[in-house]
Amino acid sequence: MANVSTLRFGAQTDEVTSLLRIVNMVRLGEAVTRPEIGRVTGLGRGVVTQRVDRAVEMGFLEDAEYAPSSGGRAPRTLRFRSERGRIVVCALGGLHIHVGVTDLDGEIRAEAHRVWDIASGPEETLAVATSMVDELLETDGNPPVWAVVVGLPGPVDFETGRPVAPPIMPGWNNFDVRSRFEERYSAPVWVDNDVNILAAGERARRREDNPDLIYCKVGTGIGAGLVSHGRLHRGANGAAGDMGHVRVPGAEQQCRCGKIGCLEAVAGGWALVRDAREAVAAGGTGAIADILASGAELAPEDISKAAERGDALAISLIQASARQIGEAVAALVNMFNPSVIVIGGAVAAAGELFLAEVRHRVYELSLPLATRDLSIVTSVNDAREPVRGGVDLAREQLFEAVFPRWFAEGRPTLAAIRGAAIPA
């Protein structure tokens, strides 16, 4: 049996490869008894026993209950020890902070939500976010943190974990978000665009299908997460899917990014609030006018809810947004050819009213072959989706992308993961 030194992965041996595979098979439920592992891997009984014993010794697996007998002696099942560590997800939105703590199987153990303006800046925002996480971990008995995922509402360089010129995040450009969390929790940290995290959550629902999927978020801003055959597609620098800043022909509105005529400046939630205010000032009446007359702050969610209740002004705003979104999504469909498009976000919360207009434009403007097997659906609108998506991303990184780097340590360490010459 190999000792720890031979498992330090200067080169992956057959033993290392099979150890990794066995742990992941048990973790994913693909094979949970020694005979099953032998059948799936083709390894002999003695080798399987040796590898499993090693994984048990390292703390990844343990024996569980007996499986049903198929005629002979009932085999004992194995279980992945998901309780050994925690995954932390911190989803920062334009106007909120949502944090969650899960075990290594992704079961949510605790979560918290707080209204917060991301424009408060990185120092203050991250201080609040980490204090929220600390409270959850303390309630959970301060278990070891194995991974942290942070979602940001703007472009992110995934390799460095730094936001890049995010339009709604003043003071955040090139801020080292990853290091702030690494120093706090002594665990590997992955920082990504919030739409990619939502796309990861939708991917997890369809894991067996290896989907080609687009998650289109239409909230205060607009963005898309792209999943290609089960893998998140971020592009060369992490900018893939930033459809909110595609130019709309003929549009003259100024965007928050400083450019003119961006899709977000025409169809995003903040643009709808602007247009609603202008319409009411010009004499518009109804639910939106009543909200503004009361002195309350108008939000994109208010427009969606008013549209669902039949308010004429709200319906016209939602349908105008959906038409523009549908045209932009149609271009993505022709280029990317997804099997599923998921529409989410505060504006899309208007439901079928929004979705019907998007579908109409996509099917009208996309190629027949690209839409032949295409389904366009709304997101499940589950408040826990950012946490579940973040966990899916964390588990992918921990147990697929960087597993060989830290496996010998028994748990992920910064030295093992960040110290390698391979980019994170």
Report on the architecture of this protein.
- The structure is a single chain.
- The protein has 424 residues and is α/β, with parallel strands linked by helices.
- The protein is 42% helix and 18% strand.
- The protein has 16 helices and 14 strands.
- The chain has helices at 14-28, 34-41, 45-57, 122-139, 177-185, 194-205, 263-267, 269-281, 287-293, 300-308, 312-336, 352-365, 368-371, 385-401, 403-406, 414-418; strands at 61-66, 76-80, 86-92, 96-103, 108-115, 145-152, 156-157, 162-163, 189-193, 213-218, 222-228, 231-233, 340-344, 375-378.
- Strand 7 and strand 8 form a beta hairpin.
- Helix 1 (14-28) crosses helix 3, helix 10 (300-308) packs across helix 11 (312-336) and helix 11 (312-336) runs parallel beside helix 12.
- The radius of gyration is 24 Å and the shape is globular.
- The model is unreliable at 1-12 and 420-424 (pLDDT under 50).
